[in-house]
Amino acid sequence: MVGSNRLSSRIVFLYIPLALFTIFLLFPFYWMLIISLKPNSLLLNTRVNPLYLTEFTLRHYRYLFENTDFPRWAWNTAVVTFGATLLSLTCSILMGYALGRFRFKGGNLMGTAVFLAYLIPPTLLFIPLSQVVVRFGIYNEYWALILTYPTFLIPFASWLLMGYFRTIPRELEECAMIDGASRIQAMRRIILPLALPGVLSAAIFSFTLSWNEFLYALVFMGSGHMKTIPVGTVNDLIRADVFQWGPLMAAAVLGSVPVAVVYMFFVDHYVSGMTAGAVKG
Amino acid sequence: MAEVIYDHVTKRFDSVVAVNDLTLEVEDGEFLVLVGPSGCGKTTALRCLAGLEEVTSGDIVIGDRVVTHIPPKDRDIAMVFQNYALYPHMTVYDNMAFGLKLRKVPKQEIDRRVKEAAEILGIQDLLNRKPRQLSGGQRQRVALGRAIVREPQVFLMDEPLSNLDAKLRVQTRGELIKLQRRLGVTTIYVTHDQVEAMTMGHRIAVMNQGVLQQLDTPENLYDRPANLFVATFIGSPAMNIFPAQVVGGDGTVQLVAGDVKLEAPPSHRNRLADYVGREVLVGIRPEDLEVVAGNPESEGGDTVRLPVELIEPLGAETLVHLRGPAGTLIAQGEPRIHLDPGDVVTIRVRKDHLHTFDPQTELALF
Amino acid sequence: MTTAPVRTIAQVAPLPLRQRVRLWVESEPVLAYLFMTPGWLILLLFMSYPFFLGIWISLTDRTVGLPTGEFVGLQNYRDLLRDGVFRLTVLNTFIYGFVTVPFKLLLGLLLALLLNQAFRLRNVLRAALLLPWIVPTALSSLAWLMLYDPVLSPFSWLLKDLGLIDASISFLGSRGHAILSLCLANIWRGTPFFAVAILAGLQAVPQELHEAAAIEGANAVQRFFAVTLPVIRGIVVITTLFSIIWTFADFQLVYVLTKGGPANSTHIFGTFAWQEGIGGAGKLGMGAAVSLYMFPILAVLSAILLRHVRSQEA
Fold first, then answer.
1. Pfam families from the xrefs (chain B) (predicted)?
2. Complex prediction ipTM
3. For the domain B4-233, what is the CATH superfamily, name and number?
4. What does C266-288 look like in DSSP terms, one character per residue?
């Protein structure tokens, strides 16, 4: 790096700003965590410093599992997330492959259409889509989300994979086809293994987006036991302005942990996917 | 092993004709080189043979089968690509075995063939490496090995040496020739490098703008180019070309360009007879222009005196740039010739090596 | 000279039908459309179809529970224009979508420049600081909901402890406060996205350019404007447009923090459409019309974005 490396200037221009950013960006998580572990007696006492944890309890977590539907919400979220991710990935690999590697009339147009589909937000569609879901007889079923999440997952993942497939030299599959592979075999045995990092990025993205989705889950699968974690937590744990902050924060922590863990394991794939999303769409 | 026939093959990309009515026959066991400048259609012609491009019209025959509409995998060919196209996620062994596995060749047979090919190429120690751990030369060998183990009817090679550095390229060139002669597999080899073409091929097909210009042995191509393009494309430095007026009279024919007058050798008189009073293009290779020391008498009108423009000593020879009647002429002189720009030297023209071309059709006059 | 084949080629027998079909299916254009079929089928069924259905519904007075409604023309759109809450919603959405952007951009740029320096734990910090953007917004918004609690807010506690205020702040109690609070939470969530995207752009700035500029005597600030900014300009523009689109069409944050309150004063398009169409009255037609009012703005933003992405690719 060009620039002064003297310690004092590094403290003023690097460490202090970084510390401020860290506090700003991570404090809500810290807060979430300590509240979820705080006994109610301390939690509701406004005279003690709320920023520390002087004693802790797992009562709120136990409450979540024993007195609420949280385990069921977690199961629902997992089913929907895996289903939607799997479906989207299958469609996106095929679509990205076609857009990235085949020469055909209308290819550019299709690419643009996929990009525009990526920009259509759920808030624009959720009301008519709820009618479609009812008409197809999948309202309040897992299919309601497994089939609708791909509307935002496929455009993104296809776009990402299209870019990825393009980086793989054409000769590789041509060579495989001369070596005796059909097009499908060349794709499965040569191109797909090489595109694995891209597929992983797309998978992680689909996973987090599905896990985090709120509006469709609220509208299409929001009754009875079929809620997902975000919907169940927000709707069922907040009843008529009586906030049970302990269990609420415990649910927020537990609902965030899976994505955080997946993210931490694959952070580089995530970031490369995200910047591909930002740069290329 | 088999012969290969292109029968009036045309390939169009939208409005661009990449290969135009190509007809040629490659004999069984022959090493045929397709050469030409970039964009001349040679690679497209090869890709049509491989089945990577669908021909627009015409037919392609390999052995006794018309393969025009047969997918690449069923054509029984192997191809070496310019960038080698090694599968990055497979070891050298798996790269070589891939095609055989797809064809359900028994395991022991695969093993035998891969090891045999590896031995031929001297890459036995590399079998467990991944392509990225290999040098350029080693990758090239693996690509060759992958073609060899397949024991195909035809080898297709698309500029397989052009990613190697100059020294390695010359060495590999020799090895490749020996290998092909030893295996005796029909080979079609694409290159833009006329030196490669001349040294490697049994026969050479010169292409330009999608059209086959000449198909012949290296010697014939060099000595009897069919047209201006072949004449200037083959040979380095390139053949000198200049326009000259054909002047006839009492049994002799003279080629006149500015101050230079050359009497056409008897062998040329007949072909030039029709051109008396008109212009032709005269071609002469640099080695057929001899720089004569001193200032000897003219013997039979085959010497001319021209001023020197530039000297390029190349070690084994010296290229002498001369101010000719129409632009620069290059003559090939002795290695340690002492000349300076501005000197006027005597040049002896080997007239029996003269080439003449029709200025309109650019075809050689025979 | 071309030489004619010495031997005539055996007449080509027509390929058997099965092989011809195979050949046709394996040709690139056919295979391409075949590959795209599953994806497009889903997009057509669950995106295009509802989009056009939405336009139809917005022209009716359809309500939840009833099979169809009466065609009412542009009545819903006209009613909305006269509706004070809707007009407030439009204003809120613009504040929420546009006013937060400069903050996210500036903070994100600053954070990216910091993370582009060499220091220990850099990768850990880069990963950790992206968390606000990757955890479920509905759940992190719950944390903000408590941070904004009129009684339990640690902000109020801290300010009182420092003697700066006497009574707890009512973060979500009035429209002004609530909108500021929403914007703050939105900036919190969006800043890491900007930072990571811009960081990727920064890492593409050739080091030699910096060194050349430094040799010519440019200081750090001059180098930033002369060397860094031109290189990351494209990425900044595209990131900004994405962020505007997403924020503009947001739902969760506002739904969790205020649900549009107090007194319907903090709605944005998404939450107001939900309240009209699903949550409250169940007036599907009206809700669909609210959503569709977003469309022209989204279309313009998308067109600009598309143009930038195209030029970035070229």
1. ABC_tran, OB_MalK
2. 0.90
3. P-loop containing nucleotide triphosphate hydrolases (3.40.50.300)
4. S--HHHHHHIIIIISS--HHHHH
